[in-house]
Amino acid sequence: MLSSVHIAVCSFLSRLSIWLSLALVFLATAELFAAPENNALDDVVRQLAARVAAIPNLRGPVRLEFLQEAPFEAETGKEWQQTFRMALDEHHLALTDDASATLLRVGVAETPTVVVLSAAVRVSGKDETRFLSIPRSSFPLASVAVAPIRIARQLVYQTPERILDASWPWNGADGGMILLGYRDSVLSVLRIDPAGKLAQTISLASAGLAPSRDPRGELKVNDANGGTASFGSKVCDLAWSTSTEAKCRSATSNWRGPTVLTPSCDPAGWTLRTDGLDWTTSDVLQVVPAGVLREGSAELRSDFPGPILSVNVGQNPANALVVSKNLRTGNYEIYKVTLACGD
Fold this sequence. Notes:
By secondary structure, this protein is α+β, with helices and mostly antiparallel strands.
């Protein structure tokens, strides 16, 4: 028979074994659920995947293309790409390597203050883009605020006559637009009312500009009194209330710089860029974070039906007017491009 001491020792050892087992389980569980350093990035990646899966009419399988330069890859690794794949799978969006499948581009761009993840895909003839950003200062944290941004594009005007540039009126309150282009083959500034009808024509014939295959001009609306139309070596002064003929003078124009839009949810700003200078082929509008550190780290493409002729700031800091020539119809088209907040 076992002595009472022996029984007590065995009982103690048994309880100790159970406690040690529970401790090991606890430690393993704690290690398993400890937030990794890139948990913030993973969270944003999953949110981006959810927004992509929610794009209307997007059906799988899709072909993934990741855009990530080597310096940023060294900082973040490629684990986030696998996280994105797994998140798409959770949302039942199948993937494939088939070159003919719908292409989904996913990229990372960085500025001095934020890291931006983006996704771009073309669905039913329409470009769909989704953005999410994470502050660089919050990068190691497990929970961060994100700024969901989307591009909205609306065709607001079209005409068979050539348009070089477009602007909103001086206050934007009455609607309509101010156009720089041709009216009955005469270079003019045209004021269009909110119904899309011609309300005023200011001739620029006094500029004495010879016809050009690829004319270039810029329109600037100053205020309720007037503005200017610039053509490199000529500047024409405009008066909205009294003039039907602009006064033009020799002057060197300072061409407009890049257009930067600042939606309310991301005041850091986004720059609009055109893809090329060939006015005989279709063009692409690129939207990149202002101050991006490395070119090409995320390329978001919005295809237009022809060359982009101008990009002019809109009624508020979040929109712009883009002039393009539709190579299929021959019409000149004006689009309102807006960086909107939310899904």
